[in-house]
């Protein structure tokens, strides 16, 4: 058994720990009991994850003598709606056993049930405690830190929600064994992002351990997730004191989001961010912020992790139009996070349309061809 790792997310009185290890779902009951007075627990999960791990969570709570219910929501981003979210309250306020202020919500699953359960915790009785049990790489390395919760609206993703920190996060890496490979890779794109913005050691890890990471081996995952949580926690805590740090997490996401919007459901978030990071690295090299070797290093890691660095047929004009509508655009120019070197980034709000077109066009080029 590989040693567990704990990372503190420092947010003053709202600080909490993220524990990463093997078999942590079995320890869930004990963890919840340790929160103080607990009247009952409500495990909120999606249909896929509930079928795989719902019983383990319920057994662990029963073992700690905590009365618990399991509330299932349909899986998938298309169900991250106010309507589905509203249904969660029918489970919470079941007339036979309505939750009270001493109840605890447990979010079991990826970012979708995580965001929805967290927002339900923020809203039920104007706020009850919650604990997150992420089961995807994305939920573990990204959604488990920072307290963003919410749902989508037809007008856009995550438009409705609240900042509401969990009391703790238990990441059982054994759950990643059943995660579909495409979902695993999608989460790894955020890991590359964290490496570029703050931690070159993380880039070394991704290079050295790529095969054990892709096989979701427990030791490699504990190490990887702990390191990523530490990066995001540092950024989020720093942002409490000094604004703009959090914007660094948008590296690869300006062009990435536009590509994702254009591609619709044919591309995962991670794939779009991988292309967005490739384009941003090249743009930074043309501005002489980084060297060709840095660009090649990042694209090499992405390829090794099975993430795309090339895409034919992207319409630069259309992408520019989408970026202009994005809240990050100001006065005809686009705002982007670019590396000053690997491990350090800054925000640039003077990105010209021709730089974007050139970067987007470069994505149609040959693999490994980094020359301008
Ligand atoms: N709150 C935040 O700060 C934050 C950060 C990043 C992303 N998000 C949100 O997270 C969502 C995306 O998260 P996601 O990629 O985890 O999506 P998800 O929750 O939809 O999970 C992806 C798929 O994998 C399945 N799955 C999850 N865990 C599994 C497991 N262990 N084994 C087998 N199947 C499993 C799910 O049922 C689903 O079909 C988006 O809605 C995004 O907005 C939130
Ligand atoms: Zn992202």
Describe what this molecule looks like in 3D.
The chain has 372 residues and is an alpha/beta fold. Helix content is 46%, strand content 20%. The protein contains 14 helices and twelve strands. The protein has helices spanning 28-33, 47-63, 82-92, 111-123, 137-143, 181-198, 200-208, 210-214, 218-241, 253-263, 269-286, 292-304, 316-325, 353-362, and strands at 5-9, 16-21, 41-46, 68-73, 104-109, 129-134, 148-153, 156-163, 168-172, 329-330, 333-341, 344-351. It has a seven-stranded mixed β-sheet with strand order 1-2-9-6-5-3-4, sandwiched between helices. Strands 10-11-12 form a three-stranded antiparallel β-sheet. Strand 7 (148-153) and strand 8 (156-163) form a beta hairpin. Helix 5 (137-143) packs parallel to helix 9 and helix 10 (253-263) packs across helix 13. The protein is globular, with a radius of gyration of 21 Å. Residues 367-372 have low confidence and may be disordered. The structure holds nicotinamide-adenine-dinucleotide and zinc ion (ZN). Nicotinamide-adenine-dinucleotide binds next to helix 2, helix 4, helix 5 and strand 8.
Write the layout of secondary structure elements.
Elements: E1 5-9, E2 16-21, H1 28-33, E3 41-46, H2 47-63, E4 68-73, H3 82-92, E5 104-109, H4 111-123, E6 129-134, H5 137-143, E7 148-153, E8 156-163, E9 168-172, H6 181-198, H7 200-208, H8 210-214, H9 218-241, H10 253-263, H11 269-286, H12 292-304, H13 316-325, E10 329-330, E11 333-341, E12 344-351, H14 353-362
Parallel strand pairs: 2-9, 3-4, 3-5, 5-6, 6-9
Antiparallel strand pairs: 1-2, 7-8, 10-11, 11-12
Helix pairs in contact: 5-6, 5-9, 6-7, 6-9, 6-11, 10-11, 10-13, 11-12, 11-14
Bound molecules: nicotinamide-adenine-dinucleotide (NAD) and zinc ion.
